[in-house]
Amino acid sequence: MSEFDVVIIGSGLGGLCCGSILSLKGYRVLVCEAHSQPGGVAHSFSKDGYTFESGPSLWSGINNQKIDNPLGHILRLLKEEVPVAKYKDWEVIFPESRFRLEVGEVPFRKKIKELRGEISLKEWEAFLAEVKPVSNLVKKMPLLTSSPLNLDFFDTLKIAGKLLPDLKQISKLRKGFGYIADKNLHDQFLRNWVDLLSFLISGMPMHDTNTAAMATLFEEWFNPESYLEYPLGGSESIVNALVRGLEKNGGELICSSRVKKILFKNKIASGVKLENGKEFNAKFVVMNCDTWNITKLIPSKLLADWQKKTKSIPKCNSFLHIHLGFDATNLIDLPIHTIWVDNWERGITADRNVAVFSIPSVLDPTMAPKNKHVLHGYTPANEPWEIWENIDYRSKEYKDIKEARCSIFIHALKNIIPDIEKRIEVKMLGTPLTHQFFTNTENGSYGPAISASDTLFPGCKTPIKNLFTCGASTFPGIGVPAVAASGAYAAEAILGKKEYKQLFK
Ligand SMILES: Cc1cc2nc3c(=O)[nH]c(=O)nc-3n(C[C@H](O)[C@H](O)[C@H](O)COP(=O)(O)OP(=O)(O)OC[C@H]3O[C@@H](n4cnc5c(N)ncnc54)[C@H](O)[C@@H]3O)c2cc1C
């Protein structure tokens, strides 16, 4: 049986951030990944000369140091650089209007004035005036160095001192972001806009979305120096940089290695057993899988209460996906991203009502063969699992339902590329079953649907000694910055505060 200091179950961005930090500090780390390649929902795959993306497409703060992004900090800590393409705009297609929007406060103000007039602009300004102090408050608690779970008495005192002038804002952090919108926004367009951004961040409407996560987004996007960054080569480049960071300091990654169960000695985590029978001893075990999968790895007699609690956490819905390789002849000024909404009245969470498209080859031509483009489209966390759970993926029924439900993509895409059907050279469709299969997420869910006004995310600690969690199930926000931070917090819990602090000095 091989001996390690830490075994990490899953090579999602959270697991890789945790593992690479620990190996940098000299820990012997093993990352076990069930899939044939690392990255979790952020993995890429190649076919016919195209690099297809499966998950995140909106990145920022990788190289831009003006943005406090945990992933950017961790890459710098590992001395790993990922070249990026900088850009500022995305296409928005709503039922009532269509426009190209740049990040930054001024372009959106102009757009509001043009589309909705002065009164709406005033409402927006009042709204921003209330969001800004919350953003400032969040800025005073840099994600990586003020891990909420590992604060000791002196940290708390120090932070409390810094936050005293903002006492009034603190109570807002405990409410859903919709609270600030309700107070200030009556214009339906603006309310829909905030609801959409909240949904894209959390998979939930604005009233359930965490205010700190949204205040961070607003701080980033409305900063005059803000821009978006696309990692050249796609999300694979980020994953590869983290794997390099892990391996150059002695860490190991094994793919196609599903963990079947966690091993315990005297009720303390002591290693893992893989499905293929191999066992690895470790002083610490970190689970990067989602909250529902972790409960399957622990014998229920050990943790009945905790498992019951985590199992009952509600899930966000899943995804439909489309991957296209298509002829780029005479297509000029294509947007890298497009957000499409069909009908506001159906509500932001309604199935097949919102779709996100990205065409990364617009910025990075190496992702597609010459004169071709590669596209990933998905319906963000709005595809109900119940439609799919009892269908056999090998049946004709499955193929027919898949084609029918994914037809929404071509319908929406015709707004950007009217003759898209004639151009398609490679086409792959994905359902919640596909998402579940390739990412090992329960029911293909985006993550926990924990309302900001209800309760807190579980955090990286468990009731079992030497057993920790990280990833989208542990920290509010679900997106890349939140999972990177969660990986760092799990590393902090293992390293201890002093060692961890030295890293980020
Ligand atoms: C379609 C889509 C689009 C997104 N777009 C954005 C975006 O634009 N911007 C943004 O910031 N965020 C975005 N996100 C969110 C973000 O990508 C994810 O939250 C994040 O990548 C999840 O990382 P994680 O650490 O939770 O691990 P995951 O990616 O969930 O990976 C967990 C890993 O654990 C492995 N695993 C599970 N069980 C086992 C086991 N028993 N043994 C071994 N391995 C196991 C899995 O195979 C998987 O590789 C998007 C997500 C999706 C799905």
What's the structural blueprint in terms of helices and strands?
Elements: E1 2-9, H1 13-24, E2 29-32, E3 44-47, E4 50-53, H2 70-77, E5 84-87, E6 89-93, E7 98-102, H3 105-116, H4 118-139, H5 153-163, H6 167-173, H7 178-184, H8 188-202, H9 211-221, E8 228-231, H10 235-248, E9 252-254, E10 259-265, E11 268-274, E12 279-287, H11 291-294, H12 300-311, E13 321-327, E14 337-341, E15 354-358, E16 372-378, H13 396-413, H14 420-423, E17 424-430, H15 432-439, E18 467-469, H16 480-495, H17 497-503
Parallel strand pairs: 1-2, 1-12, 2-9, 6-14, 12-18
Antiparallel strand pairs: 3-4, 5-8, 6-7, 10-11, 11-12, 13-16, 13-17, 14-15, 15-16
Helix pairs in contact: 1-10, 1-16, 3-4, 4-7, 4-9, 16-17
The chain binds flavin-adenine dinucleotide.
Average the pLDDT over all residues and give the rounded result. 91
Quaternary organisation: single chain
Q: What percent strand?
A: 15-25%
Write down the overall geometry.
globular
Structural class label? alpha/beta
Number of helices: 17
- CATH superfamily caption of one domain: FAD/NAD(P)-binding domain
Radius of gyration: 22 Å
CATH class of one domain: Alpha Beta
First-to-last CA distance = 37 Å
List low-confidence stretches: none
